[in-house]
Write a structure and sequence with these properties.
- By secondary structure, the chain is mostly helical.
- The chain has 13 helices and three strands; from the N terminus they run αααααααβββαααααα.
- Strands 1-2-3 form a three-stranded antiparallel beta sheet.
- The protein starts with a helix and ends in a 10-residue tail after the last helix.
Length: 280
């Protein structure tokens, strides 16, 4: 099975359908993992059908405990691969997870965020944390930011080709702009705002490590991820009275229902309702 040739063809066809760079990377990775398992028994993807794909997804759930969202991405990527590359329409609807998990977003307090920033001395790392929290960025959006996306004249940051191939703008704080200027003088990035040591894209793993280490320095016991800073951005804006429809636009959500999950957190924290323990 010529996996690399198949993946090159898949990437080209996804690009022609104008999928985002991040989606293409995720879909390619998921299909590559699938094909590497499949080639142990089959010489061509044409030899596989719905039953074999079903067994693979079942194995991923049991062996790797993949999340609902990751299972959905695996099935979608394989489904699209068979449509575009193999030329076969498969009925994989039953492999998409039907039960939705309604979990509340995990976020940090303002004091915890402040400690993470204040105890981070590396200027690049400080800017990474401030961009994730101060602009509500997804990890992929941070990595793909270019120097030209920072508009200090209008004090906005342009987020381009984000999830769903949408562009948006978010506010640029004076504090962040000042830190970015210091960072620029020290590191002199060429194209991307946050670059690796040899230039080019910074890695996801590096950003995750920066955030994790900052949380440890701040004495935060829970596991902190880059996406938790985005959740904190939305929660703190809502707590400070920002209209939820503005927050929806800043986060790049297609539906207001996605943004409304944050109201479940802030409604309880701002309410005057007391615990029955306080009546004792």
């Amino acid at each position: 099975m010529q996996i690399e040739t198949l993946l090159v063809d898949y990437e080209r066809k996804l690009a022609l359908q104008r999928y985002s760079k991040n989606t293409i990377l995720n879909y390619k990775s998921a299909v590559k993992a699938f094909l590497q398992v499949a080639e142990k028994k089959f010489s061509s993807p044409n030899e596989l059908g719905v039953i074999e794909i079903e067994k693979y997804v079942f194995w991923k759930i049991n062996k790797h405990a993949v999340s609902h969202s990751y299972q959905r991405m695996i099935v979608a990527s394989i489904d699209k691969f068979y449509q575009l590359v193999v030329g076969v329409e498969l009925n994989l609807k039953h492999l998409y997870p039907s039960r939705k998990i309604h979990s509340l977003p995990k976020y940090l307090s303002i004091d915890e965020i402040k400690r993470m920033i204040d105890l981070t001395t590396n200027q690049k790392h400080k800017c990474i944390i401030k961009l994730l929290y101060g602009c509500g960025l997804r990890l992929s959006e941070l990595l793909n930011l270019k120097i030209t996306d920072i508009n200090s004249g209008n004090m906005v940051v342009h987020i381009r080709n984000s999830k769903g191939n949408k562009d948006r703008v978010v506010m640029l704080s004076n504090q962040l702009l000042e830190d970015l200027r210091k960072y620029f003088l020290e590191y002199n990035p060429k194209e991307y705002l946050i670059e690796g040591q040899g230039g080019g894209l910074y890695s996801e793993k590096s950003v995750q490590t920066v955030v994790k280490d900052a949380a440890v320095r701040a004495g935060i016991k829970k596991q902190v991820t880059p996406h938790m800073l985005r959740h904190s951005f939305a929660t703190h804006l809502l707590e400070n009275g920002t209209d939820i429809r503005y927050i929806q636009q800043l986060l790049g959500h297609s539906s207001i229902k996605t943004t409304e999950i944050y109201t479940h957190v802030t409604d309880v924290s701002k309410s005057k309702i007391k615990s029955p323990l306080d009546f004792l």
